[in-house]
Design goal:
Largest sheet: none
Radius of gyration: 13 Å
């Protein structure tokens, strides 16, 4: 899943085409408001043993960033 809360920062990313590309970073940092990216959700599914790393990599929005996320999460070396 991916969850976005319509807060000020999200509204600004949507309104301003030059900021739209930064929307994923807003979601990544918005966990305190319940937001998360699709790749963060995949990381949790791997961590919980519901899917394999290989399956998650196939479906990751950004495989290179996802791989780094797995390393930071301690799921992969």
């Amino acid at each position: 899943t991916e969850l976005t809360v319509n807060n000020y920062r999200v509204k600004e990313c949507i309104r301003d085409p030059q900021r739209t590309a930064s929307l994923p970073q807003v979601l990544e940092k918005g966990a305190d408001q319940g937001m998360h990216t699709f790749d963060q959700s995949l990381t949790q599914l791997v961590r919980d043993g519901h899917i394999t790393v290989e399956t998650a990599m196939i479906h990751a929005a950004s495989p290179a960033d996802f791989k780094r996320m797995l390393v930071l999460a301690g799921v992969q070396e």
